[in-house]
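Whiteboard transcription, Tuesday session. T.W. wrote the structure tokens on the left side:
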């Protein structure tokens, strides 16, 4: 995961503002279920892809218009467990169905053979649980870390067996909820993702072991920080985290 900064001057953002002015507009008007608005989905998704550098908002694999989908940060079916809050949340959910600030572009979630990840995994939790590991919150993303085995974690490494017991989010602190989201809700430590992150770390270890000048590491770091015409390098935040540790 990496920080995503919303761009409110994009075509997709403007198209959704126009749609919000039409009475009774819902996400159906974006998701190709309403024929006269078929084009809106692609305009919105293209804008999301551009601001994210063509990386999945969760796992950081490369995505494109042909294999990406639109994810709601506040799920469309999310229901606040507190009875007093239900009406307010339901109205918020309706509003956020076509709110650009509530949208992310994500992958198909099928790159791990035995399990789903990203929004496909999150689908099982959306009704009961809001997303705590929000990539739009820079303070949270600054504390996303990776260990030498390719595991992604938040702030301090905690054993996976412990994290898996933290399922009652109403009784947990924010840090615990973020850890549960990363590992369980989004399943970002599934085998394929973990192996690919580990491979990047191992490749960088071999390179940096032979580098004695700090400037060379900083040059390599800038390569992963830069967004090219085709977006960021896949899993770039893994490399950024590793290389940053070697520049200090």
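and on the right, the sequence the group agreed on:
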């Amino acid at each position: 995961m990496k920080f995503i900064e919303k761009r409110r001057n994009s075509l997709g953002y403007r198209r959704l503002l126009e749609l919000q002015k039409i009475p009774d507009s819902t996400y159906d008007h974006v998701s190709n279920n309403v024929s006269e608005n078929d084009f809106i989905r692609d305009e919105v998704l293209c804008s999301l892809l551009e601001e994210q550098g063509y990386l999945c908002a969760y796992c950081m694999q490369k995505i494109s218009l042909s294999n990406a989908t639109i994810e709601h940060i506040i799920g469309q079916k999310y229901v606040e467990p507190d009875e007093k809050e239900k009406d307010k949340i339901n109205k918020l959910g309706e509003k956020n169905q076509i709110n650009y600030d509530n949208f992310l572009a994500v992958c198909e979630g099928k790159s791990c053979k035995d399990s789903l990840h990203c929004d496909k995994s999150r689908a099982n939790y959306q009704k009961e649980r809001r997303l705590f590991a929000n990539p739009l919150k820079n303070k949270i993303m600054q504390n996303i870390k990776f260990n030498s085995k390719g595991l992604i974690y938040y702030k301090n490494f905690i054993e996976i067996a412990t994290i898996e017991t933290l399922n009652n989010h109403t009784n947990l602190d924010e840090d615990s909820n973020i850890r549960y989201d990363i590992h369980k809700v989004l399943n970002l430590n599934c085998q394929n993702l973990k192996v690919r992150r580990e491979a990047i770390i191992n490749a960088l270890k071999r390179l940096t072991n032979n580098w004695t000048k700090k400037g060379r590491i900083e040059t390599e770091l800038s390569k992963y920080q830069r967004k090219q015409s085709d977006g960021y390098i896949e899993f770039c935040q893994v490399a950024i985290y590793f290389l940053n540790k070697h520049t200090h």
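Someone added at the bottom: Residues 221 and 240 are 6 Å apart (CA to CA).
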